[in-house]
Each structure stands twice: as C-alpha cells, then as structure tokens.
Amino acid sequence: MEKILLTRSGYEKLVRELDLLSRVERPQLVQELLEAAQEGGEKNPDFLSALVQRQRLDRRIQQLQQTLANAEVLVGSNLPPNRVRFNSLVWVRNLSSGREREFKLVSTIEANAALGHLSTSSPLGRALLGRRLGERVEVHTPSGLKFYQILEIRMDKG
Fold first, then answer.
1. What are residue 138's DSSP bridge partners?
2. Angle at 149 between CA 144 and CA 152, to 5 degrees
3. b/e map 104-123, b = 16+ CB within 10 Å
4. Got the DSSP string for 49-115?
5. Stretch (H or E) spanning 3
6. Using CA atoms, how far apart are residues 54 and 27, in angstroms rounded to an integer?
7. Of the four, 66, 74, 88, 143, which is 20 to 30 A from 50 by CA?
8. Per residue of the chain (158 residues), what is the pLDDT tens digit?
C-alpha cells in the first residue's frame, strides 16, 4: 500500500482517536452487548443496535490501524522554506473577489475546509505547491478559472 503523508499533529490525532476507540469505547460497547444479550439477544432492539454500533466501531478501528501502519510523518522537505510545501501555512488573496484566507497544506486524510486545512491533491493545493511569496497561481476549479496571489508562507510547527 502507498505511504500516507501526515503532519505530526495529524498523526497524533489519529493515534489518540485509535486509543480512545480501542481502550474506552469498544469495551463499553462490548459490555452493552453482553447486557443486551442477556435481555433477549437478537430479539432485543438494544442488542441489535449495539451490534451495528460495534461493527461500525470495529471498521473505524481497522481503518485507523491501517492508516497508521502506512503513515509517514513528514517533518522536512527538499523545498526551501520560502516555497509552499506540505505543512505550510499559506495566506492567499483571491484576485477576483479580493477575499484573503489562510490555508494549511495537508494530506487528503487531514483535509478539512472548515478549518482551512487544504489537501495537497486539491486543485488549489496542487497549484500552490512549490510556489514562492508574491507569485500568482491559476487554478482550474469546477466553477471555473480562479487566480490567487501568495501573500505569506510560514511553516506550521505542529
């Protein structure tokens, strides 16, 4: 399987989630299953609900284990610090609207638009990678061509 790039904070977040699910939530769910089984087993709606929840939880635990097994925490880059790279914080201006926004370039797994975490495989993320302060980038999006200017580049410490 292909390596999955993660930031240190993204990796640690997944480790904490796996620990919580494995050590706290799953044992509680197993206990609920045992109690519901004693009260009617497969005829008990609480048992069936707990069984579905356990299956969902087991899938998430397996997904996290697989992701972490293939994860690579990227701490450095072959790009100089004055260029946009993985884990960069990039302040950009949309040249059409004038709107400014900061993005953190992360992996697809860590991407979260609401937090400003932009995937390096997204159209804007790909366009920004390797660029310098002041450069303008052209981005082909589903809603058309957009132009951005890079206002600031910093490395995230987390």
1. 147
2. 140
3. bbbbeebbeeeeebbbbebe
4. HHHHHHHHHHHHHHHHHHHHHTEEE----SS-TTB--TTEEEEEEETTT--EEEEEEE-TTT-BGGG
5. none
6. 10
7. 66
8. 678 888 888 899 999 999 999 999 999 999 988 888 888 777 778 888 888 999 999 999 999 999 999 888 876 655 567 899 998 999 999 999 999 999 999 999 999 989 999 999 999 999 999 999 999 999 998 889 999 999 999 987 65
Last residue of a domain, one of 73, 102, 132: 73
Residues 6+ apart with CB under 8 A from 44: 36, 37
Structural domain count, the chain? 2
Q: In angstroms, rounded to a whole number, what is the distance separating the alpha carbons of residues 123 and 49?
A: 41
Give dist(CA 129, CA 131) in Å, integer.
6
Does residue 31 share a domain with residue 92?
A: no
Tokens of 107: 């992996």
Give SS3 for 122.
coil
